[in-house]
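Hello,

I think I submitted the zinc ion job twice by accident. Can you confirm which output corresponds to this input? Input:
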Amino acid sequence: MDAGVLYVSIPYRTCGHLCCCGCGHEVITPLSPAQWSITYDGENVSLTPSIGSWALPCRSHYWIHGGRVRWSRRYSAAEIAQNRERDRRLLARNSEEHRPGALTRLRRHLQSWRW
Ligand SMILES: [Zn+2]
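Support: Only one job matched these inputs. Its output is below.
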């Protein structure tokens, strides 16, 4: 992957990019109602919620909004644990439901946007 590019794969329901701090680590953000979602306004993409690379040495935390990177504060160990627990609950709840989802009908291979 190239730095500064957000890769979006609709068939794999996944986005990927290199960590915005420049450390070079790959950041994979699965797309699902319990994980991340993207919006595209015709020019730029936004990814929600924020990206917290707690497992990386840099512990970067930022938003990709309107094609730009907005840095957020670093979380404390307690906040990270709280976030992980919430994510785990959301995922567990989400996997119990069957959702067809509009995006699954969209068959695009790979697109990228530069910010
Ligand atoms: Zn980093």
